[in-house]
UniProtKB/TrEMBL annotation:
Official protein name in the record: ABC transporter domain-containing protein
PANTHER family to which the protein is assigned, alphabetical: ABC TRANSPORTER G FAMILY MEMBER 11 (PTHR48042), OS09G0472100 PROTEIN (PTHR48042:SF19)
Species whose genome carries this gene: Oryza punctata
Region (Disordered): 1-77
Localisation: Membrane
Family: Belongs to the ABC transporter superfamily. ABCG family. Eye pigment precursor importer (TC 3.A.1.204) subfamily.
Keyword Transport: yes
GO cellular component: membrane
Composition bias, Basic and acidic residues: 19-31
Length: 748
């Protein structure tokens, strides 16, 4: 339905629109002209955005008319909907004054990874790249797959993994980025020592990664609305936030799919292209100062690609956003929307400069674009050597292999005016760093608001995801029916002492053990958390609180209903207080297990590995919890101290036992029937002598210790995530220093 107006715009699709023809005309002006054009473009950037007024001029890569109107053809074609969206967008005020953009520059950027096998030589992924991206513009990174586009985005966003090494400078508004650990040491001087912190950095940027990590149970509209509530500043009222979400949905053409569940591997939901657009939606809600997009148009048809990129470009211009996008196979129209182009081939720069000049550069280097061919297809074909038999034909009719073609282009770029201009521009950016304060996002929603929104979202997710709690609830009911019938009406015989002990142990150990069943769903939550955390949507504490609070009602339900079935069928002490305690311990222990699994999830990336690890850890705790081997018999080193005291089973079990046995008395042995006066054994004696339970403190202390563990495990999770964030950069810095020292000592 919603796609109809978009389709209506397609018939005007032409292989070579006006814009490119203009460029072709420019192509014929000759070399001298080209230099003067570039010079003008450079002059156009003077004072931009570093001038005293720090005001926006039209993006220098674009001809002035283009800056106002992306394409005359398209503006005629623009559908009603489009115009409305545009008008609405114009009415909504920007979150950031437009003169506070981010200029990103990188100089001599190298990224390498350790070679495979015994070979210790490092394999370069990016080789000495230079470039910059400015507010109001879209810089496209293009190249064959595997050429390093995602790596370049990762480096710029400060998200490189610890296995790769980086070298070179990354400048944000002319100041060095602290995350660029590999930055060459010579650059650290008084002037550039002013580093940008991690927190400031993630507050500035938004990154739409190559794969979409979304909450599958939500509808598109819900997902974007929750995201808006989480991210948009506290100064904005609820209606404005909702309107921003709707506006963004419209901009990304998602109105038609707004009420469809996102879906995932289990349930088919929206299409791959729509998922891509939902991911983009969530990151452009705040109109971030710096936006990284990794293949935003993959999975989109050519019309959708055009609309998505054109709207992002328009937004960038309107809001003064700096957009860096790795793009895969753009159509001619999409290509025409880019201001700058960074063309990479196997880690080397083939071209960096105004996108409109690429054609000319290729032609001058001996690879003119055949008429009727999409220029971007031509560029990519010329530099793709994955299928090495490919032979390129140069201007003079000579043939060469693709590797030779790439070398020719790389060398041609190195000696071109384009590189000189880039270097000049970077120098200018570097020189103008003073007085350029980094602008933080406007105040985010308060901690309480974020925790509340996250709790709501998580609650809805848990409700809709059958695997999170409902399946467990059903299995628990079935299991408790089994327990209840096996131990049915256990009575108060001598034999019932053992039966009670076993039944309670089963509940404390196995029912809580089953809490790992929700782990796969939790891992999905963690992935979403990971993405949103890196994009600075909210903090770790909000996530922990939200996850704990939202799971509480489900765990309470699971511990009360199936718990009651097992409890009353077995015929344990029937007073409300006793059952209440039983359910409370069961509930708390499940919370402990969930906390334990959170810690496992923070350490182990994959859910299968996580389940195995979690099961192993719990198995060990179960074993030394004081049932399978009595506490006094446990070997003292390790198993008794400290393991016995660490295992939560000890407290759950002892709490259950105290709850059940205290106040009861049992006949001393099985043949009481014949004797007149039956010798009795009290529950207290059983606890002390038989189960070897510590009676110095009451069952409530056991419960309190379990509650303490619930808190402790969550605090531990918080600390691990925080430490991880802090340590990763430090580890990389250390690794880098070692490598650097090694390189210096070996004379490299
Ligand atoms: N952490 C890493 N370890 C080893 N090799 C890597 C790593 N990251 C990227 N690479 C390699 O670097 C090259 C570029 O990868 P990438 O940036 O993902 O390419 P693309 O341009 O398709 O986004 C690929 O050949 C990839 O195998
Ligand atoms: Mg990639």
């Amino acid at each position: 339905m919603a796609s109809e107006p978009q389709l209506a715009a397609v018939p005007r699709w032409t292989p070579s629109p006006r814009r490119r023809q203009d460029d072709d005309e420019a192509d014929h002006k000759g070399a001298a002209d080209m230099v003067s054009v570039l010079g003008a473009s450079m002059r156009g950037t003077e004072g931009f955005p570093f001038g005293s007024g720090r005001s926006f001029q039209p993006p220098p890569f674009l001809p002035p008319a283009e800056a106002e109107q992306p394409s005359p053809e398209i503006s005629v074609e623009r559908s009603e909907n489009d115009c409305v969206a545009f008008a609405v967008a114009r009415e909504t005020s920007s979150l950031r004054p437009p003169d506070q953009g981010v200029v990103l520059a990188w100089e001599d950027l190298w990224v390498s990874t350790a070679g495979a096998g015994g070979n210790r030589r490092r394999v370069p992924i990016l080789c000495g790249l230079n470039g910059y991206a400015r507010p109001g513009e879209v810089l496209a990174i293009m190249g064959p797959s595997g050429c390093g586009k995602s790596t370049l985005l990762d480096v710029l966003a400060g998200r490189l993994g610890s296995s790769v090494r980086q070298k070179g400078d990354i400048l944000i508004n002319g100041r060095r980025q602290k995350l660029a650990f590999g930055t060459s040491i010579r650059a650290i001087d008084g002037k550039h020592g002013d580093l940008v912190s991690w927190n400031a950095w993630i507050e500035l940027q938004a990154y739409v990664t190559q794969d979409d990590v979304l909450m599958n149970t939500l509808t598109v509209r819900e997902a974007v609305r929750y995201s808006a509530q989480l991210q948009l500043p506290s100064g904005m009222n609820a209606a404005a936030k909702r309107e921003r979400a709707e506006e963004t949905l419209r901009e990304m053409g998602l109105e038609g799919a707004a009420d469809t569940r996102i879906g995932g591997w289990a349930h088919k939901g929206i299409s791959g292209g729509q998922r891509r657009r939902v991911s983009i939606c969530m990151e452009i809600l705040t109109r971030p100062a710096l936006l990284f997009l990794d293949e935003p148009t993959s999975g989109l048809d050519s019309a959708a690609s055009y609309h998505v990129v054109s709207r992002i470009a328009r937004m960038a211009r309107r809001e003064g956003m700096t957009v860096v996008a790795a793009v895969h196979q753009p159509s001619t129209e999409v290509f025409g929307l880019f201001h700058g182009l960074c063309l990479l081939a196997y880690g080397k720069t083939v071209f960096f400069g105004p996108a409109a000049d690429t054609n000319q550069f290729f032609a001058r280097s001996g690879f003119p674009c055949p008429s009727l061919m999409n220029p971007s297809d031509h560029f990519l074909r010329t530099i793709n050597k994955d299928f090495d038999k490919d032979i390129e034909v140069g201007l003079d009719g000579k043939t060469m292999t693709t590797s030779q073609a790439i070398d020719t282009l790389v060398n041609s770029y190195k000696s071109s005016v384009h590189l000189a201009k880039v270097m000049h521009q970077i120098e200018e950016i570097r020189a103008n760093n003073e007085g350029c304060q980094l602008v933080k996002k406007e105040k985010q929603p308060t901690f309480l608001t974020q925790s509340w929104v996250l709790t709501k979202r998580s609650f809805v997710n848990m409700y809709r995801d059958l695997g999170y709690y409902w399946l467990r609830f059903a299995i628990y009911v079935a299991l408790c029916l089994c327990v209840g019938t096996i131990y049915y009406d256990v009575g108060q015989t001598y034999g019932s002492i053992q039966a009670r002990g076993s039944m309670l142990m089963f509940v404390a150990a196995f029912l809580t053990f089953m809490a790992i069943g929700g782990f796969p769903s939790f891992v999905e939550d963690m992935k979403i958390f990971g993405r949103e955390r890196l994009n600075g949507h909210y903090g770790v504490a909000s996530f922990v609180i939200a996850n704990t609070l939202s799971s509480t009602p489900y765990l309470a339900l699971i511990s009360v209903v199936p718990g009651a079935i097992a409890y009353y069928l077995t015929g344990l002490q029937s007073s409300g207080e006793h059952f209440g305690y039983f359910a409370a311990v069961l509930f708390t222990t499940m919370m402990v297990v969930e906390g334990l699994m959170m810690i496992v999830a923070s350490a182990v990336p994959d859910f299968l590995m996580g389940i195995i690890t979690g099961a192993g850890v719990q198995g060990v705790m179960m074993l030394n919890g004081g049932f399978f081997r009595l506490p006094n018999d446990l070997p003292k080193p390790v198993w008794k101290y400290p393991m016995y005291y660490i295992a939560f089973h000890k407290y759950a079990n002892q709490g259950f036992y105290k709850n059940e046995f205290l106040g009861l008395a049992f006949p001393k042995n099985n043949d009481q029937a014949g004797a007149g006066a039956v010798a009795m054994i009290t529950g207290e004696e059983i606890l002390k002598d038989y189960w070897q339970v510590q009676l110095r403190y009451s069952k409530w202390v056991d419960l309190a210790i379990l509650v303490g563990m619930v808190v402790l495990y969550r605090v531990l999770f918080f600390v691990i995530v925080k430490l991880n964030e802090k340590m990763k950069p430090m580890v990389r810095r250390l690794r880098f220093r070692n490598v650097e020292r090694h390189a210096i000592s070996s004379g490299h």
